[in-house]
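REQUEST FORM: STRUCTURE PREDICTION
Request ID: SP-0412
Submitted by: Lab K.M.
Chain count: 1
Length (residues): 484
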Amino acid sequence: MPVSLLGDQPFENTPSLEAKALRINLNDNIYGTFAEIGAGQEVVRHFFRCGGASGTIAKTMSAYDKNFSDAIYGKGKSYVSEERLNKMLDLEINHLEKRISAEDRAKKIFFTYANTVTTIDFAKKFKGHGWMGIKFQTEPNGPYSMISTHLRFHEIDARSQQESVGVVGVNLIYGAFYQHDRPRKMLRYLFDHIDKSAIEIDTINFTGPLFKDVDNRILSLELVKNGMTEAVMFDPDGNNLLPARVLYKKNILAIRGSFRPVTNVNMDMFTSSSSLFYQDEDVEENNTLNIFEITLSNLRSNGTGFIDEQDFMDRAKLLCAMGLTVMISNFKEYYRLVEYFSNYTTKKIRLSMGVSNLIEIFDEKYYRNLSGGILEAFGKLFFKNLLVYLYPMIDPDTGEVVDSTNVRVSSQVKELYKFFKYNEKVVDISDYNKEYLNIYSKEVLELINNGKDGWETMLPEKVSSLIKEKNLFGYQPDKSKRLD
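STATUS: Completed
RESULT:
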């Protein structure tokens, strides 16, 4: 008998942790194992304490010692990693299937929950993080689907962090069985009975037959929208990435934009900045990450204040098709972006931007929330090993090319700008295509929407082809049906 998708718990109510665990235990079909490393057995504890666990829990274990963990799951590069989590899930499911008779298997829906966690150290320097996931069926002898997620702790004592693991773990297991048909809502329910400030969920992946229609990039966006994390990343194949892993000890080149759509200007800025960066000592392809970053404010740039998910996916598909790594962040101010990168790397950081973005950086109104104002922000921005690569613009009034030598900033911050320019923190991009300076993505989008010609030459050839092939950004081949 398959698990009921809705059951008797309305979504308007929030079941207690005990109620969630008990509902799993009282389902005669659900049967599985718990394997927890590094933070005790906090998740399974909830299932034992609520009662009725004997028919649900086949085995619980904690291969805490590294030698035992290696002997059971095999050696790996890291004990707290997605690789280790996947090994744990695969092995425990394999054990279930081997040790339960075919007759009993016909009545059971198998699952394995696993986590591998490191909590805060004694010096309270590293707050800790962990992976958790569940591999599960929804009908006997059916295929397996999987949900995996990465947590970062913000609490300052190990016991609280362990308790947080227990709460999120129960929510994950309950959600897998009773909320898997609505994964975006399930994301929010992972924070049931826990303060959002206690933990951060910065990566989540839904895989398997149950989630064949789920795009994990949309779920990444949901994490940022819901305040569950401040930034998410995905690779050119559209797979969610763990920021801490891909940024760790890397040189970083970041380009911020709306990319609606990505234009020749964006790609010229990228290639020119890359050429500059790779001239630096110790900057090579294998130790450098190029990132195209979109902020939530840019995603809301359509004027409605809401995020059009189809519009977001159009941008994501184009950027991924160009072989680019994409970041979605809630960092409206550049200094916050640099602070975020600095959490994971001490290598070189470069921001590539246009003149208009540089002028915004020197606008004091963005720093009124800081006690030290713009000086505090710039201390955070330029304290690290950071440079700005500046892409020029055409002055619409004079036709003059504007770069770092003739840009006009507010008189109140003119001397501050001179200081950073004098210290070579702003580097002009000189190898640019002047023909591209009159290209603006907003005008390109209007041409596409209104069925006008000529926009194709303003975009990389691959981008133009994809827009036409997939009807992105409102493009319709029949002009009479195109958007007004």
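NOTES: The chain has two domains: 17-214, 245-438.
Reviewed by: T.R.
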